[in-house]
Amino acid sequence: MNHELVNPVPIKHKFFTPGVIALVIIALNGLVFLMGRFFFGLGAVTNLNNQYPWGLWIGVDVAAGVALAAGGFTTAALGHVMHREEYHAIVRPALLTAMLGYTFVAMGVFVDIGRWYFIWHPLVMWNGNSALFEVGICVMIYMSVLYIEFLPIVTERFIGKVNLPGFLSSLNKLVDKILRLLDRGLSKTMFVFIIAGVVLSTLHQSSLGTLMVIAGPKMHPLWQTPVLPLLFLLSAISVGLPMVIFESLIASRSLKLKPEMHILSRLGSMIAPILGIYLAFKIGDMFIRETFVYLGEFNTASVMFTIEILFGVVIPLRMFLSPKVLKSPPLLFTASALVVFGVLLNRINNFVVAYTPPYSTESYFPSFGEISVTVGFAAMLVLAYRFIVLNFPVISLPGKHTAQPTKYSIRGVEK
Amino acid sequence: MSGKSRRDFLKKSALIGAGVAGFSTTTSKAAPKNILSEDRMGVLVDTTACVGCRNCEWACKDAHGLPAGNLESYEDRKILETKRRPDHTALTVVNEYPHGKNSNLPIDLKVQCMHCDHPACVSACIVGAFSKQENGSVIWDTDMCIGCRYCMAACPFQIPAFEYDKALNPLIMKCDFCFERTKEGKLPACVSICPVEALTYGPRTELIKIARSRIKRNPARYVDHIFGEYEVGGTSWMYLASKDFKELDFPNLGKNPAPGVSESIQHGIFAYFVPPVSLYALLGGIMWITKRRKELEEEGKI
Q1: Do residues B61 and B42 touch, judged by C-beta distance below 8 A?
Q2: Spatial separation of the C-alpha atoms in residues B98 and B106, rounded to whole Å
Q3: Does residue B166 sit in the same domain as residue B207?
Q4: Contact list, A118 vs chain B (CB under 8 Å)
Q5: B83 and B131 share a domain?
Q6: In CA terms, which of A39, A75, A328, B159 is 20 to 30 Å from B105?
Q7: pLDDT exceeds cutoff 50 at A414
Q8: Are A86 and A53 in contact (CB under 8 A)?
Q9: Looking at the partner chain, which of B19, B31, B261 has a beta carbon nearest the beta carbon of A129?
C-alpha cells in the first residue's frame, strides 16, 4: 500500500500582507452597508421591491454559497465513505471551506430575511410542503454536523497544550481532560456524522433547486424545469472537487507552499465524468422540453445561458480531459475556476436572471450596497480561512510523512 | 385580548404538537391549514360595471387601519393614467385600460389577492404562516412570519407586498378578504361600499352560475371567459370582462395549481423519510465495506 500519510500542521506564515489588508478594507465596507440594512431596513440598502423579492443575497450568498461549499461533502464521501486515504490531505481544507461557507450562508440568510430575530421559527413551526423549510432545516443541521466534524481539529490543536491565562490556569488540567474525552468519543462516533453530512447535503443541495419550481411561469423556460433539483444536485457534486483544487492552489500560492499536484491531478481526472453527466442532463432536459428555441433569441437570458454552459461546463470539461491540463498548475487552476464560475453563474441565473415577475416596470440589478455586503462576506470568509489555517492543523505539508492513524473508524472493524 | 392570546397559544401548541407528531408519522401533519370547503365564498368582479370611482380603495384602507385620506380625494382620475400594483399602503388598487368591445367607456379593473383555491403562498411559506380558511380567504399569521419573502417569489399573481422601508417588524401585506369583518357577518369593505354593484359576494359555486348566465344573456358585452374559474386550479375572486384578459395584464396561467409540481417533488424526496434513510444505510454499507477491504489488504501484506 502506498497511501499518503498526512500530517496537517498550523502553517507558519504572517497573517497580514498587502492583499490581506485590502480584504480587511473590503470587509469593513460591507459592514458599513450591513449597518445601514439593520438600522434603516432592507429598502435602504437593496434594490429589492415587491416585484423582485429575492436578489443578489439569496442568489449568491445563499444559493451559490451552498453550492460552492459542496467540496465538504464530496471529499468526505471520497475520503471517508469510499475510504480513499490518499485523499485525506484535502479533506480537512475542504471541511474548513464547507464550515465557513455554511456559516456565511447562514449569515446571508440572517441579513436577508426581514424579521431576522425570528430566524429560529422554522425549528418549531414546520411546513412539510415548503422546499424552503426543508432547505432551512437541512442547512441548520448540516452546519452543526460540520462544526462537529471540525471539532477533532480543535482537540488535536489543544490537547497537551492547554494554557489558559491568569486565574483560569487552574482549569488547564480539567479542560485538557475534557478535550481528550471529547476526542475519544468523537473518533468512535464520527462516521455517524460523516454519513449524515453526505445525506443532508444531497437533500438540501437538490431542494435548493426545488425552490424556484413553484415560481412556475415567472421563471424563464431555459431554467424552469421539474428536474431542477437533480440539476442542482449534479452541479453541486461537479463543483465540489474543482472548488477544492481552486482553493488549494490559491492557498499554496498565498502561503508560499508547494502545490500538492500529485493529489490535485488525480482529483482533476475525476471531474470530467461528473461534469459530463451534468452536461448530459442539462442538454437532455433542454431537448425534451424543446427550450433550445429560446437560444435563437438574442436577449439577456439566452446570452447568460450560453455563457453558463459554454464557459462553465463545456470548456472546463474539455480541459479536464487533457493530461497536459491535469499536470500544469495554472491550467488546472483555470479549468477549476471555470467550473466554479459556471456554478456561481448558474445560481445567479436561476434566482435572479431567470426570474421575470409579471408586473415589473424595470428589471432588477443589485445595488452598490448589496454588492458591498456580498463581496464583504466573501472577504471575511477568506480572512477567517487564513486565520484558521495559520492557527489550526488543517493543511498538510507535503513531504512530511509522519504516521497518522485514520482519524475516523467504524466500530467493529477497528484495528 | 386575553382571549386572543389564549387562542394564539392554543394554536401554537397545536402546531408544535402536530410538528412533533409529524416526524414520527407523516409529513402532511406538519403542513399548514389548507381547507377547500364546498361552501367557500368568493367575489365576482364585473369589470364592465366598474366605473373606476376607487371607493373600494378608500374602504379597504379604512377597514385595515391604513392612512386613507378623505373619500373626495379619490375622485381625481389622474391617478388612473399610470398602472399601479397593490402594496403595503394599499391592499387593492384600480387600474384603467382602453375600452373593449361594444363600448366606448374605458375598462376599470380592481386588483387584489385572488385567494387561490390551491395557494402557492400557503405551500411555500417556510413557517406555514399562511392558511386557506373555510370561508375561502387566504390569510397569514403575522407573528410567525420571518420576512423571507418566499411567498412573493411563489405567488403567480405577484400579490404579497413587503414593508422594505421598515428596519424593525416589517410585515407582509396583502388583501385578507376582510377576514375579521366577514367573521362577524359583515361584507368585505370593498364589496359593501361599491356603488355600482361591480362586486358580488357569495358562495363561489353560485358566483360561477351568475357569471355564466350574465355571459349567456349578454354575449356581446362579455368575452366568454370567467377568469379565476380554472386558472391555477381556481380562485375565490373571479373576473368578467369585455376584452381578452391578457390585454388587461392578467398573467397567462394554466389550469394546474401553482404548488403542484414542487409539492410532488418535495413529497417524493421525503416519502415517509424512506429515501434519506435508505441513502444513509447505503453510504454506511459502502463505508464499512471499503474500510474492511482496506484492512484485509493491509493484513494480507503484513
Answers
A1: no
A2: 5
A3: yes
A4: 144-147
A5: yes
A6: B159
A7: no
A8: no
A9: B31
B254 and B275 share a domain? Answer: no
Residue type, A390: L
Report how far residue B140's alpha carbon sits from residue B138's, in angstroms, rounded to the nearest whole number.
7
C-alpha cell at A86: 490518499
Digit-coded pLDDT (tens) for A60-85 = 999 999 999 999 999 989 888 888 87
On the CB side of B287, how many CA atoms lie within 13 Å of its CA? 25
pLDDT exceeds 50 at position A411: no
CA distance B20 to A322: 53
Bridge-based pairing of strands B172-173 and B161-162 is: antiparallel
B103 shares a domain with B136: yes
Host domain of residue B144: 29-258
- pLDDT for the residue A5: 55
Q: At A271, list the grid cell.
A: 471531474
Class assignment of domain A57-369? mainly alpha
The three-state secondary structure class of B35 is coil
Residue entry with cell 493484513? B299
pLDDT band at B272 (very low <50, low <70, confident <90, very high): confident
pLDDT tens sequence across B42-91: 999 999 999 999 999 999 999 999 999 899 999 888 999 999 999 999 99
**Rounded Cα gap, residues A224 and A240, in angstroms:** 24
* Phi–psi pair at B200, nearest 5 degrees: -115, 125
| CB contact residues (below 8 A), chain B span 72-91, against chain A | 83, 85, 87
pLDDT for the residue numbered B18? 37
> What's the pLDDT score for residue A412?
40
How do the domains of chain A map onto residue ranges? 57-369
- Give B156's contacts in chain A (Cβ within 8 Å): 216-218
CA distances from A344 to A161, A328, A382 (A): 41, 24, 17
What b/e string do you get for A189-210 counting C-beta neighbours within 10 Å, with b at 16 or more?
Answer: ebbbbbbbbbbbbbbbbbbbbb
For residues B80 and B52, is the Cβ–Cβ distance under 8 A? Answer: yes
Same domain? B155 vs B276: no
Residue B9 located in a structural domain:
no
| B82 vs B47: CA distance, rounded Å | 18
Amino acid (one-letter) located at B286 = I
CA B69, B73, B74, B80 torsion-angle sign: negative
- A129: nearest Cα among B231, B173, B257, B235: B257
Average pLDDT over residues B206-219: 95
User: Pairing relation of β-strands B237-240 and B41-46?
Assistant: parallel
- From CA B201, how far away is CA B192, in angstroms rounded? 9
B301–A42 C-beta distance less than 8 A: no
Is residue A257 classed exposed, middle or buried when 0-12, 13-18 and 19+ CB atoms within 10 A define those classes? middle
Domain count, chain B: 2
Of B128, B279, B287, the CB nearest to A202: B279
